[in-house]
Amino acid sequence: VQLQASGGGLVQAGDSLRLSCTTSGRYAMAWFRQAPGKEREFVAGITWSGGNKYHNQAVRGRFTISRDDAKNTVYLQMNTLKPEDTAVYYCNARKGGAAHWGQGTQVTVSS
Length: 111
Hints:
By secondary structure, the chain is mainly beta. The chain has no helices and 11 strands. The strands form 2 sheets. Strands 2, 4, 5, 6, 9, 10 and 11 form a 7-stranded mixed β-sheet that branches. It has a 4-stranded antiparallel β-sheet with strand order 1-3-8-7, with no helix packed on it.
């Protein structure tokens, strides 16, 4: 399983970003994030079929996970970003009960 995350950057509060995670196949996928000094936390997940999506309550209504299987890509659309969203964002794939991680992309939101 190979994962390549991209799309992070430095933005101002209220701005939007779209993260992308290109995969080597089709898997159940999720986004996690880790802020400095904090544990990695779940942000959003999407099932293999795309029929079910899950979002952390802290981002619900602002972030949306989606997938384009023709492109083997999973997205995280992030709107109305807040300084507390600052973190390294990681994509995660589940295959055969094992979790696989991408390299992470930095999102920094200035106030």
